[in-house]
Design brief:
The complex is a heterodimer of chains A (about 220) and B (about 350).
Chain A lengths: L1 H27 L5 H7 L7 E2 L4 E2 L21 E3 L5 E3 L8 H14 L1 H8 L6 E4 L4 E6 L5 E6 L7 E4 L3 H4 L26 H27 L1
Chain B lengths: L1 H39 L5 H12 L4 H27 L4 H12 L1 E3 L9 E6 L8 H9 L12 E6 L21 E6 L8 H5 L5 E3 L5 E3 L9 H5 L6 E2 L14 E3 L11 E2 L5 H4 L6 H5 L5 E5 L6 H9 L14 E4 L14
Parallel strand pairs in B: 1-8, 2-11
Antiparallel strand pairs in B: 2-10, 3-4, 5-6, 7-9
Classes of the chains: A alpha+beta (about 220), B alpha/beta (about 350).
Chain lengths: ~220, ~350
């Protein structure tokens, strides 16, 4: 019984992995890079590249060459801090762990900001807990809120929430502003006064009818 | 004479009726009070008294209250969940989720860690005024959803001005504008908190780790503190707060986001339920540009030290003498204004 459940789960997981990866390569059509670059033998000393639609003559990274980051001719290998070499991690295709390795590429030239980042002073942070997971839910006024599900709500560890390339496009790194959410309430409105009004009305009517009753009784005597 | 006598008797009847009415009312009132008083004034045994004193002297007197509240809220939550299950069917996703939430509820009373001092820093250059922090805060802190209490206000002000009197909260949905900056503002957790000084019942105070908390059990709703706060950071619960069970945050702290009573004051508590256990506040987590940083100012390796040393900082309204512990700074670069064609 249990075994069959596991088996089904495993098959599903494999299937979904397959779907995801095929979808991603369909979208970009350029992964894995080895497909073409194993034989292309490029130098990387260009600023504009029409095949990949990259242009380093505009944007904040204007003036850099592809080879500053992509180690030519094996362009899927990236050059990072202290000559470390890491395989490329692409946003929307690779896992967060892989994208985190790309931080080292940025750190090569932006060491100061990288240190800010590792000290949680650049970029936003989140926390992780034991056996916990984060579920993003749409909440109040459309905000995407990270709901933390933990086994027990204690002993959290803060970590950076995103990798550099999730906020900055490495080929045009200035971050564009995001959508903005609906207006705020300036002053919280007071509750409806209806309840108070009805209460007062009820008391008044009861009192009046009591008085009338008393008068009628007096008349009868 | 006869005429007068008639009127007199009528009057007398009326008075009599009124007196009887009042008397009856009083008697029932006293009777009810007496029953209630008898409940309250039950005799206590010596062992109970000793136990009480020991609990008070023990590690954390809020621990006991937190457990009581936890049981209360769980009961309430389960009732709500049952309603949902009746509505949507026993095996619907909503039903199981609601049940799951209720079981997860924990009301903590984590005490401050000695030697810590929590501080937040906000990069005005990065903030784009998107208001995500304000709304994530509502989700995190189980704030009422009906009357629109939001702890964080995001204000727009001209870059050359930076005067709080000229800020605008109704800046619509085009932001960031050129030459304008956005200042999210909530409780500053001041070192000399004027709200604390005016509270007549000591229902609000500054904890050892720098968080200004409100004890909802003690608050009498006089709203002195709201008037005394120079930053307009405090909010009043005009009614019993309503939080849908499916949106309930089960991670609660007795001095933080535990469900509030009606007619108590609440405000930002630096997400005490997260930060006392090593986490970071919800606004810091949700910020899409990473404008906010949170940490312990006594930690030399932490983000706050780094920012204060590297970029410097300023506070809002220093002239009030409140010594706010919420720092603003102008960080590296600025996100460009929204371009015209984007609308």
């Amino acid at each position: 019984m249990k075994l069959s459940v596991y088996l089904v789960a495993y098959i599903l997981a494999v299937l979904s992995l397959f779907v995801i990866s095929s979808k991603a390569s369909e979208e970009t059509g350029i992964y894995p890079c080895q497909q073409c670059h194993a034989v292309l033998n490029v130098t990387g000393l260009v600023r504009e590249e029409t095949v990949h639609d990259k242009n380093l003559t505009i944007g904040a990274h204007r003036g850099l060459y592809c080879a500053n980051c992509h180690k030519a001719p094996t362009v899927w290998i990236m050059e990072g801090l202290n000559d470390t070499l890491v395989e490329i991690g692409i946003k929307d295709i690779h896992s967060r762990e892989k994208l985190d390795e790309m931080n080292l590429v940025c750190a090569k030239c932006h060491y100061d900001i990288y240190e800010d980042y590792t000290r949680l002073a650049h970029g936003n942070s989140t926390f992780v807990c034991e056996e916990g997971r984060i579920i993003n839910v749409a909440g109040y006024k459309g905000v995407i809120y990270s709901f933390h599900e933990c086994k027990e709500y204690s002993k959290f560890t803060p970590v950076p929430a995103r990798a550099c390339v999730e906020c900055h496009n490495p080929h045009n790194p200035t971050m564009e502003p995001l959508s903005i959410l609906p207006k705020q309430n300036y002053v919280a409105p007071t509750p409806k006064q209806d309840n108070v009004v009805y209460g007062t009305l009820a008391v008044t009517i009861t009192a009046m009818s009591l008085i009338v009753l008393a008068i009628i009784r007096g008349e009868r005597r | 004479m006869k005429e007068e006598g008639k009127i007199d008797s009528k009057k007398r009847q009326l008075l009599k009726a009124a007196a009887v009415g009042i008397g009856a009312g009083m008697v029932s009132f006293i009777a009810i009070e007496r029953n209630k008083l008898m409940e309250v004034l039950r005799p206590v045994s010596l062992s109970e008294i000793i136990g009480f004193v020991e609990a008070e002297e023990g590690l954390n007197k809020y621990e006991k209250r937190a457990r009581e509240r936890e049981a209360e809220i769980k009961k309430m939550c389960r009732a709500e969940a049952d309603k949902i299950c009746l509505d949507k069917g026993e095996d619907s996703a909503e039903c199981s989720e609601a049940r799951n939430r209720c079981e997860k509820i924990v009301v903590k009373a984590t005490p401050p860690k000695p030697g810590t001092r929590f501080v937040m820093a906000l990069d005005i250059n990065k903030c784009i005024g998107c208001r995500r922090c304000a709304y994530a805060c509502v989700m995190e802190n189980n704030t009422d959803r009906d009357i629109g209490i939001e702890w964080i206000h995001v204000l727009e002000v001209h870059r050359d001005d930076l005067e709080l009197l000229n800020t605008n909260i109704d800046y619509g949905e085009e932001a960031p504008k050129k030459d304008y900056v956005y200042i999210p503002m909530a409780c500053m957790h001041c070192d000399e908190p004027s709200c604390v000084y005016v509270c007549p019942v000591v229902a609000t105070w500054k904890e050892d780790d720098g968080i200004v908390v409100v004890d909802y059990d003690r608050c009498i709703g006089c709203r002195y503190c709201i008037t005394a706060c120079p930053y307009g950071a405090r909010r009043f619960n005009w009614k019993k707060p309503r939080v849908p069970v499916l949106e309930l945050n089960p991670n609660m702290h007795i001095l933080g986001n535990v469900l509030r009573y009606p007619h108590v004051v609440e405000k930002c508590i630096y997400c005490i339920q997260r930060t006392r256990d090593g986490g970071i506040p919800a606004c810091v987590e949700v910020c899409p540009v990473g404008a906010r940083s949170f940490g312990d100012i006594n930690d030399p390796e932490g983000p706050i030290r780094r920012i204060l040393e590297k970029y410097g900082a300023f506070v809002l309204r220093p002239e009030t003498g409140n010594k706010p512990m919420f720092f603003y700074y102008f960080g590296p670069a600025r996100t460009p204004p929204r371009s015209k064609e984007e609308g």
